[in-house]
Amino acid sequence: MKYYLLAGEPSGDLHGANLIEGLKKADPEAEFRFWGGDRMAEAGGRGNLRKHYRETSYFGIVQVLRNLRTIKRQMRECQADVAAFAPDVLILIDYPGFNMKMARWAKERGIRTYYYIAPKVWAWREWRVESIRKYVDRLFIIFPFERSYFPRKGIEPVFEGNPLVDALEARRTELPTPEEFRRRHGLDERPIVALVAGSRRGEIRDNLPLMAKLAHRFPGHQFVVTGVPWLEKSLYDRYMAGSDLRYVCDQTYETLHAAEAAVVTSGTATLETALLGVPEVVVYRTLWFQVKLQPYVLKIPWVSLVNLNLGREAVTEIIQSDLSVDRAERELRAIAAGGEKRTRMLADFEELRTIIGGPGASERFARRMVEELRAEKTDRDK
């Protein structure tokens, strides 16, 4: 069968690549075409990569508005390429701003559409639920709590675990020991605190200054910032100036693996940190009125995926508009070695691993997709 996959971000590229590998096992005659990145190209053939996410990623309303004509042109290019390929199924991977429009277009043209990694409608933009119900033929979800959310909205989703577990397991055996990590980056023997400040410019601007202040209060530890390769080091240097923070690039898992604890912004990184077994504090700075409006705007009681999946506050979330460091200091001391919250948090992380599910999710999702497509094809041929 023929599969067209659409991913517009690095995380989508990673999960898309693992899904392609699973589809090849479930359907040895599979043909692919996709928008994605280098990982998907490696899994599905570089000649099948029609557009790299570096050309399609726009973050924030300002960037989107500035590039609106380009985005519309890319949408037309994508639609023409999908139509020319005539896939048995269009698989949309996260990236809802673009992919929900593609879902509607595909539905109107009778193209079977699967959505893999559902838009986070349970947090915001819940109006997208109606579009999912109308334009998506099958929704594949990766968070356990979504199994109860979507049926309440009239959508029966498919849950086979979380592909992030596969990505972590694939990397785990390659991770250096803490000692080797220290040698590679010229670090001393003090315990490491990983600082995962986000992957966008605004997140670095808003969160890294607080993390630098926090580091001053822990002279017995060394704080390591995990930079992302698509942001220049000078951006980090601007907010690290005058501090003892260390910087490493594209080494998030390596840094977490070597760390005693972590300070993390909200997002997937909170779940990655927990699955790696590193106690964490979630810190996110935003505008004061957004903090006040949070209970009215967000549809969820927590922002971290750890708490959402466990259904309780296992990790402390500090959402604030100023740069007060006092509470962050207290919470970090509580989860550092010997801290009163550390043992409980590590036990919560073990429970989280059980809830999330074991390795093999990507293959299970792929197998389920192929089974359903074959069943549908059989029904049509009768």
Provide a descriptive summary of the structure in words.
The protein contains 18 helices and 13 strands. The chain has helices at 10-26, 38-44, 60-66, 68-85, 96-108, 128-135, 146-152, 163-172, 178-185, 201-216, 233-240, 252-258, 268-275, 288-297, 305-310, 326-335, 342-356, 361-381, and strands spanning 2-7, 31-36, 49-52, 89-93, 113-116, 138-141, 158-159, 192-196, 222-227, 246-249, 261-264, 280-285, 317-320. It has a seven-stranded parallel beta sheet, with helices on both faces. It has a six-stranded parallel beta sheet with strand order 10-9-8-11-12-13, with helices on both faces.
User: How would you sum up the global shape?
Assistant: globular
Number of helices: 18
Q: Indicate the proportion of strand residues.
A: 15-25%
Distance between the termini: 18 Å
Describe the sheet with the most strands. Answer: 7 strands, parallel
Q: Largest beta sheet: what is the strand line-up?
A: 3-2-1-4-5-6-7
Roughly what is the average pLDDT, rounded to an integer? Answer: 88
The radius of gyration is: 21 Å
